[in-house]
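From the shared-data thread, chain only:
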Amino acid sequence: MWAKSFQAALEAIWMTPRRTLLSGLGMAVGVAAIVVLISLGKGVQHDVLNQVESLGVNLMIVLPGRLSPENPFNPMSFIGLSTLRESDIEAVRQVPGVRRVAPIMFVAGAAQRGDRWADAALILGTTPEWFRMRPHTLRVGRFFTDAEADAPVCVLGPYPAQQLFGEENPLGKQVLLNGKPFTVIGVTAEDTSKSVFGSAGFEFAIYAPIRALQQAMGSQQIHRVIAQTAPDVDPQQLQQQIRFAVLRSHEGSEDFTVLTQEELLSRLFTLIQVVSVALTGITSIALIVGGIGVMNVMLMSVTERIREIGIRKTVGAQQRDIFWQFLCEAFLIALVGGLMGALIGWGACVAIDAATVLSPRVELSTVALALAVCGAVGLVFGVLPAYHAAQRDPVEALRYE
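Structure, as tokens:
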């Protein structure tokens, strides 16, 4: 029964290729949108994973403000305020199992040299420990040392160096960081391969001693405390020890959060998945519209093929045979549309990858999921036309003109 109904459905579709393609067009649009959106989300996740891992291994990050599963977004990070203080650095450093500690201070603004600007520069105040935690490759020059904690010196990332100096050697020359003069002592050679985040943004970075930067900016803000831990220590246990150490430094006020790299990734992925699911849900409306289109085409097909239905019933076909034939036709039309959509989505992802910094990751599981949903929609919206076809009276069908 199944084989004969499926064969009859294939023959009917093969005889009307134009109608099949046009009726599957709505499904194609929905599947293409789903493939593109899910692939973009997976591509961004892959980029995030690479960038977080590039920060180094065995890291703990102390953030200002409280984060919780109910409130995973930290307003402190957006309004520039920080509850972290100088004593927190030493408190974390004293925790057994912590190897290195580096504070981070973000400075809003731009770097300038004469009439040349590095508008996208990320100005960071830190200590030499940072360069030991996350190894950087130097193109020229050197990093600043502990003895230069108060010295107005800086190390440029490749993009600020290019924007401010072009092909000129920047060593020993001055740049203005928010109007304050700093002497260039080195230029890094960050990975500038294509990524939505670049090399975690470090190719845009300008590093300066945090104490010198605080004095120049008139601010004692510390926005992050990064701790590198020993690999043989349980990270969960060490996370709690760091939390208790900073809690004592804050005299019992828990206005901070300690995150591991895994937790940071988890929170970022949660945000990406929420956005991806929302966008996928919206674009799935196109599949419903496509399913309605398939149903309308199949209902018209039933009307056009009434005599065929009568002849088949006369020669012995049962109601279930007619029902399964038309249901299989609806399923196959939806599947053809889904295959077209998968090809269109793959082509769109290739174009996006070539023309933008985004790198969509088209996976077989994504295509399989889209086609499965597409086939299910075809079956659901094919039931009504199949039922109408199966209920046709053979005598009246043979008389139909």
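DSSP finds 15 helices and twelve strands in the chain.
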